[in-house]
Amino acid sequence: MDAFMFSSSHRIPIGASAFAPKQLSPTLRLALRQRTVASRHRSLFAAKSPFHIMTANKQLHRHESTSSAHKHLRSHAGNLHGRNPIPTTRAIDHPSSTGVIYVMDRATAMGWTYENDQWGNFGQGAPEVGHIDGAMDKPLTIQMEEKEFEYGPAVGLLELREKVAELYNVRYREGKESKYSAKNVCVVPGGRAGLARIASVLGDSNVGFFLPDYTAYEQLLTIFKRFVPIPTPLSEDADFRITPDFLRQEIVQRGLGVIVCSNPANPTGRVIRGEELKEFIDIAKENHATLVLDEFYSHYIYDLPQDQQGRGNSSAEFIDDVNKDPVIILDGLTKGFRLPGWRVAWIVAPEDVISSMQAAGSFLDGGASHPLQRAAIPLLEPERVRKDAAALQRHFCEKRDYVVAELRKMGLGVRTPDATFYAWLTLEKLPEPLNNGLHFFEECLKEKVILVPGIFFDINPGKRRELFHSPFKHFVRLSFGPPMDQLQRGLEGIARVLKKHGVHK
């Protein structure tokens, strides 16, 4: 496995030889241009942080640098839309866009809209929201009371927090003495807001994360300056798996105080579960490290035995004491309940963590929508959730099997995901330059297909590494979240790309 580490004054690239920039079109060179950002000198092995919380009156560190790559992409996007880019000033910093935002901006410039049914959108990380067999229909109207015109509590409605706690206790903590209560739950307006709240209450820490992973972690680890981000690339030869021994080695040898990880994993579709997940929690406790687990895809678990269909996957099942174990869980309605537009999510954690988040939330985001929080309460009845999850698993497993089979017919390398609704697709055996994810992405846009280049999951806080050298330059992420007819259109478009380049007949 390629391993690397860096300080503010040194960069050691990872992976094989770089994809030669001269082989890329001007658009792709522009998208890849990354430069080292000057930053404060930090020790890579600063004292690791135990599970501790910032006091509410601590000031948030402001984002100090704007990557040159973002400036180029902003300018490029402005030109594509026929307008001048918005100028920047020294007084205002602009955090870089995520890779998915860049992808959708490029697609929009090529004519994509939500209403255009000629496209196959494999890019956005959202599930289809319509009816699926066996699942209960979601409400199309919301009954409101006048009091819900008021702001809701920054920590979330008490009734919803109680319902979230009940859901976790029923699904994951049956027979355990320690149970969650409303004091263990904070409701937030979406996953990114949840990540910001979590970051705002953690103290100075070496933060470990694994590559590839969710693109928004890059902004999180760039903006909050009390964190020293320490990346670890996962090996393709090891099927991008994180083993307990590997986790222990990373914590001990690299002095990690916090580990951020999506589980199930975006984009690889890997999942840590059962005794292995329990061992992760034990390792964190033994080494005074905090696990921040993004569990948004917890219902998208496939190949379960018949009697276990409808089960989710959560670290809550293996926590001993809900107020002592150093585990912070992030989940919500977005993926498992197929309600991304509601922007209702939650954090489950020890009481003192939630207490600090309440104070931080009034400053950071103000809280989730009052009426939508109220409307979410009946959706969290445990038996309803189980039935919906079982229907979701059957439906998305069928789509997974269809997409994987079609991609393999085209001769493309893809592993069957254990979870999520993503296929992590390798292009390495395709001829140059089609084997580069950015080039493949641009060629797919010409055939009205959207997917995400793999380099955007090479989380790169501070832009300290050149992504020409990314070990994920030969990958793309394909979402099978959309409805089947859109998947079919998208796969037909990919087949046309391959045929155009003489790869597939």
Offer a few descriptive terms:
505 residues, alpha/beta, Aspartate Aminotransferase, domain 2, 7-stranded mixed β-sheet, 4-stranded antiparallel β-sheet, 11% strand, globular, disordered N terminus
Write a short abstract of this structure:
The protein has 13 helices and 13 strands. With 505 residues, it is an alpha/beta fold. It has a seven-stranded mixed β-sheet with strand order 2-8-7-6-5-3-4, sandwiched between helices. Strands 9-10-13-12 form a four-stranded antiparallel β-sheet. Strands 1-11 form a two-stranded parallel ribbon.
Topology:
Blueprint: H1 26-32, H2 68-80, H3 99-109, E1 120-121, H4 158-172, E2 185-188, H5 191-201, E3 205-211, H6 217-223, E4 227-233, H7 244-254, E5 258-262, H8 274-286, E6 290-294, E7 327-332, E8 345-348, H9 351-364, H10 370-376, H11 382-409, E9 413-414, E10 422-426, H12 437-446, E11 449-450, E12 452-453, E13 475-479, H13 484-500
Parallel strand pairs: 1-11, 3-4, 3-5, 5-6, 6-7
Antiparallel strand pairs: 2-8, 7-8, 9-10, 10-13, 12-13
